[in-house]
Each structure stands twice: as C-alpha cells, then as structure tokens.
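Recap from last week: sequence in, structure out.
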Amino acid sequence: MGVDFFGWVPLVINKCFPWLMDLWEDWSIQLLVLTGLVFQITLAIFGGRRRYMTGLPIRFVVWSSYLLATYVAALALGKLTVIRVDDPEKPEYDTELKALLAPLLLMQLGNPDSITAYSVEDNRLGIRQVLNFVFSVAFVLWILIRCWETSAAASLYFPIFVAGMIKYGETIWALKSVYSENMSITSEDIDEEKNIPNLIQKLPTNIPDLDIFVKAYYRFDTLKPHLENWLYHPMFMSRHWMSIEEYNVENAYLTTAIELGFMYDVLYTKGPVLYTKLGITLRFISFFSLVSTLSGFAGIFQNSFLLDMYVAYTYALLIGVIVLEIYQILALPYSDWAIVKMVEHHRKPLVKTFLLFLVKMSMKKQRSSDMIGQFNMLDYCLHDKWLKFIKIPQFVGQEEQFKRYLKSTSKAIDTDLKELLLKGMKDLEGKRCLKPFTSRGQWTLELHNSLEELKWSIETAFDRSIITWHMATDICYHSNFQDSKNCSGSKLLSDYMMYLLAIRSYVLSLPTNEITFEHAHSRVKKFLAVSNLSNRDTALKKLSTECVQETDPEPGTGPIIFKKWHVLEEAQRLAGLLNNKNDPWKLISSVWVEMVCYTAYNCLIYNHTKLLRRGGDILTHVWLLLAHKTDKFNSMKLITQET
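Predicted structure tokens:
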C-alpha cells in the first residue's frame, strides 16, 4: 500500500499542478545549486557563532544546514551527470551553463571557513573525504568533458574548476590536520620553547593585552589539549614568563578562553590551515579564479542578461558566490590566529598599527556563552506535575531528559564565581602536588580538619555524593543564608553539579547516574506528597527543623543497590554538621570547587570538545587550567634531558 501511495504522488502533482512539475523538470538543478548556496551562507554566518550561542534554534539551523548542504550538492551533481546533450558536436548554450554549475558544487562540498566539522567524529573521516574528493572531481571532469564545446563559454570551466578544487581541498586539509600531529617531542619544540621568553619580552608595550594572546597561543600549542595522547605537557607553564597568575581574574579566564578558541578552530574550522603561507596563497588563487570567471561570463553574455533567464540566474549565482568569498576573506584578519601570526612582524609600522586595532577588537569579542547551567532537585520535584502532560513518541526515548531540560535554567558566570574557582584550585595545589586530580572532597576536608567527621559523605559513589551535598546545600542556604561570595558560589556550583548529573550526565561517565537520580527523585517526591508540601520555602523549613524518617521500599520495588540509601536523612545529617561549623560556607564552597575540579579533570577529552561546540562550559575552562598544572607525563625530566 505504501508503494502504491508514493507511486501516486507524482501523478497527482502532475495532474493538479502541472506547472510545478514543469518547473522542476526545467530548473531542478538550478534550484538545488541555489539552495546549496543558501546553506553555505547560513553556515558561514552562524557556523562559528555556535561557540557562544547555546539556543536550540541556532543549533538546529547549523546542524540541518551542515547535513543538507552536502546532500543537496551531491544530488545536484548526480543530476548533472545525466543532463541531455542534444547534439554532442554542438551542444546548446544552456547545457554549457548547466555544466558551469558542476565546479560550483565542488565549492559547496567544501564547507565555509567557519565550519569544516559539526562534531569531532567528522574529523576522523578525513580518509573517507579524500575518497569522496577523488570521485567528486572525477564526476565534475566527466560533466565538463561531456558538455565541452570550443566556444567562449567553455573557456570559463578551467578557472572555476580550480576554485572548486581549492575550496574542497582546504576542507580535507583542515580535517586531516586535526590528528596529524607528531606525538613525540621534537627538537623544534624545544627550540621554540627557548625562543618564547625573548618573543614575549620584545612585544610592543604600547599594545595593551597583546601578551595575553601570545601566551594563550603558546600555552595551547605546547599542551595541544585536543590530542589525548600528546606527550608534550611542559611544566614550563609555571615559569613567570608563561604564567597567568599575575593576571586579574577576568584576564586569567580570558587567556583560557582564547586557548579554547584555538582548540575550537583546530577541531571545527579551517583556522589552522588558512593562516599559513600555503593557505593564504590558495585563498587568493581561488578568489582570483572566481573573479576571472565572473568577468569572463559578463563579457561573453553581456547582451543576454535581460533576455535569458538562465544567463541571469548564472550571473546572479556567481555574484553570490563571490560575495560569500569576500565575506570570508574580510573575516580572516579578525581572528586570534591573525594576531599571533602578525606578532612576528610587529616591528613594521603598518603591521603595528593594524595589530593595535585587531587586539582592541578581539578583546571585545564574545568567546563563549558565559553561562552556567542550573538544575535544582527540589524545584524539579515540586513543579514537575505539569510536565506529565508532555508526551514524546516512545521510539524517541528521551521524554524524561526533555522534561529535565525544560526545568533547567542558566545564570551568568560572574567575577565572584570565577574568583572562587581560581582560589579553590590554588588552595588545592598544595595537596595535589601537580599529580592527576583524584580527590572529590577529601583534600578540602583535610584542610578544614573535618575529614573524620564528614568523610562518609564523600566516600560513597560520586553521583550519590553529589545529590547528598546538593540537598544539604539547599537546606543550609535556607537556614543559614549569608550575603557572601562563598554562600552564593556554593548555591551556583551545587545546582551546576546537579545540572551535569541530570542533563549532561555523559561528562560524569558514571554507570549508575540515571538510577541514582531516579531513586533520589522518588524519595523527595514521596516526602513532599506525604507532608502535603507544595512550596519550596515550606519544604526547606520542614527539612531544616524536623527530622525526616524515611522508610525502606517494599520488597521487590526500587533498585537493590539503593535499598538502604535514605536521601533526605543523609542530607539533613550533613546539613546539621555543616551548620555547626564556624564558617560553613567556606567549607561548602571548597568542597564544591573540588568536586567541579574532579569532574573536569576526569571528563573525557571528547566530552570537553562536545561542550566546546555547544556554547562552551565553565567545566572546560577548569579542565584546561588543571591540565597546565599536571605533571602527567613527567615532562620536566624529559625536557631537562633534551636540553
């Protein structure tokens, strides 16, 4: 029945809307190429903005444009391979114009500068892209040869074919460059390290903040955080000429944001290949080829623009392609890569003036969303009644995640929170001693002489510990509120860790996080139902003043591993112990900072790159700061031996 139905569709359309079928028959290729150009323009404008725009609409637009652009270009290329040639010896001019679209499709298969990969997995398909490139070029050549005629229009094939080859080749070059690094330390790395102090000392003093960009680039270049097996983790970052500890809080985070910007560009854009001598040369060759094609086309068909629709369409299409190319060329200088490359020539007056302008512009640039996700367990349990009316088809299987997402919020990351995290990491450095981050609260409790008293709350599974401390923080926030950075920071970090557990659990890499959350959710819901509570303040007041007695679930119900876990009782016990401290919020905030650090350090690099393309996350900033202070591969001894 399904086959019969779809078989009738074209017949019905042809019967009711014959003009639509005629339009598709005559203009299908042109419409597909135009649609592909629209997708290219969309990606060029919004592809790079996803690093700080987190909304679902922009993510959907970029995702759909990225997928459909390749599909539409391939479909149009396939249709071009079977276009009719009435007379092989003297094809009509419209056939030659259609063949002229084939090299333009090569350009569309090569993505814009702002996005070469939607996700990290796309970078691992570099070899497959090489094969696609070979077959695509072969198809284009076949189309051009098949439609070739010794006429003026055919002379335009070569320059636009060169432009298409370059554009597609740049994309493959960028994809393959991501993981093409040598995993060992070379003599060039050591020599470059020796030259860094002299380079920083010789920077012009009349260009404020230029040193931030230089330090950020070399911190990125030596650490290469996107490479999981990169062996060169230099400890020279702690030296005064590369350290960022003398910066204020905002500039310290700006340095990290610039580092992550370089990492984003390497993974998802053409940045690393464009700002090379070969990359710049190819870009100008490509642009010159396009301008030559447009100029030649205008000269050949100068008397046909208003008389022939095919000519007018092709002329407008070429103008659109060149405008897009000009937009991308004009965007090249406004990049951190351009600033770093120009530093080597800062002694030239013109470069120095332009460098001053670019640094000022770059300092105003938004680099991440600067938002921190928030999710509160008590709020979710109090206000999830209306969520039961939301139904998602069962085969999708994301109904619960969608409900949690609707109840999550986000808040701006202020200077106080950044300062709290930096100070917390600095306080823990004495305990960590440059070793991998393996503690999730123990070091803080030792520093506050509270280990024996509170170690039970951090020795359980990490997801269970997060929920216990989250609920206890809520109780303390209600019963012992203080107008301080530690108090407000504790609340933000508490809701943030619950946000990671409920919404982005993949960063925690815990096998039981889902059933842990559901068990805690059911316990809190049962408490609210039994106590007939529908108000947050009333519920927290009861938790602050009355002892909650939780009963074990009946045999055969609930997960066995949490049979004896009384969520609210443990939270009340922890809150009571914390409130008896002289400065409870200093202890609470420090524990949350350590939990964030533990999560950031132990999160897989792949997941950090995933967060990076979703607007960035404070967790990735913390991870990078910790990575610079970790002697993971004992590189200090290695560098000493090399030098």
